[in-house]
Specification:
alpha/beta, UDP-N-acetylmuramoyl-L-alanine:D-glutamate ligase, four-stranded mixed β-sheet, about 35% helix, ATP-binding
Length: about 325
């Protein structure tokens, strides 16, 4: 058995993306409505790659929630465990800056927080599944408690556990609680994704290489660290050390860069049938192939406006690599 489908759990929300570059949110004159939310983006990114994908979470029983359900359905995401609740769909206002975008969230609390055990009681978890989620879902109950129990179920069932830190401080009353939650989950992750800022935050280090070495020593699986223009780095405690440079492209909107990258990684693993057991056996050369493909998918994504609706297909990514001379 090996990985065949990806289950992304957490928030689906609306990104209102600034139509102007490098302008503070308070001065932005206009926004474009885009479907988003990191786990929902990953679910769509995986589906766009031709891999079975499911989104698990709650949206509001409101125009935005129904819009998100329809968009994900059109992209081919299984919505069997996507639920509507009375709370409103969360909104994010996004300023497009050079480097990482700035966010302002409207979520008091949002519908995504309301995921209950009963919503996931029939969710199938086995050795052919990957459960993917982020730190945002650990900030508030009931979703935090639901997720913790689901991670235990996933590990007992042999599913691959993928954790993207994706820290949004505004979701947390106390960042010490965020740090504890992130460390709790990274200790159970087969695949851990962080960016540069999250890497330094988790370890307390100031140097990326020292921080990555420190983090790898605490994680049972493989660590992926995204470094923006510096590319992506994969490390494992057994000595695996692979770094792939970023593709040079004009950045239109970096909102979905990390989501597109991890979606592509999970898609390649699923296409190759690499589940929890096989992940630790991937060679340096195999990881180079995976990361080159994922980096290309991220490059395509940041060249478009939006996150979910900017996800690349498998064919687009292959064509990008061919054009770049990196088959």
């Amino acid at each position: 058995m090996g990985l065949r489908r990806v289950i992304a759990l957490g928030e689906a929300l609306i990104d209102f993306s600034a139509l102007e570059d490098n302008v503070p949110l308070r001065e932005v004159a206009g926004f474009a409505r885009n479907p988003g939310g990191a786990p929902a983006n990953v679910a769509v990114g995986v589906a766009r790659m031709g891999v079975a994908s499911q989104f698990v979470g709650c949206v509001g029983d409101d125009p935005f929630g129904h819009y998100l359900i329809e968009v994900m359905r059109v992209y081919g995401v299984d919505g069997t465990h996507t639920h509507t609740v009375a709370e409103q769909t969360s909104l994010a206002f996004v300023a497009r800056n050079e480097g990482d975008p700035d966010f302002f969230f409207v979520r008091h609390p949002g519908a995504d927080v309301m995921l209950l055990d009963e919503h996931v009681a029939e969710l199938a978890l086995d050795e052919e599944a990957c459960l993917h989620f982020g730190t945002n879902s650990l900030a508030e109950d009931p979703i935090a408690s639901t997720l913790r129990r689901l991670v235990t179920r996933a590990r007992e069932a042999g599913a691959l556990v993928s954790f993207d830190v994706n820290l949004r401080p505004v979701f947390w009353r106390d960042l010490r609680a965020a740090l504890a939650a992130a460390r709790e989950m990274m200790a159970q992750a087969d695949l851990l994704k962080v960016n540069r800022a999250e890497l330094l935050w988790l370890t307390g280090e100031q140097d990326v290489e020292r921080a990555l070495s420190a983090l790898v020593a605490q994680v049972p699986g493989t660590v992926l660290c995204t470094l923006g223009e510096g590319g992506v780095w994969a490390r494992r405690a057994d000595g695996l050390d692979v770094r792939v440079t970023a593709n040079r492209v004009a950045c239109v909107d970096a909102t979905g860069a990390g989501d597109s990258l991890i979606a592509a990684v999970l898609s390649v693993l699923a296409r190759r049938g690499v589940g929890r057991t096989g992940l630790g056996e991937l060679s340096r050369g195999e990881w180079e192939e995976v990361l080159r493909f994922a980096s290309a998918a991220a490059a395509i994504n940041i060249g478009r406006l939006g996150a979910m609706n900017a996800m690349a297909t498998y064919a687009e990514t292959e064509a990008f690599l061919q054009a770049a001379g990196k088959p």
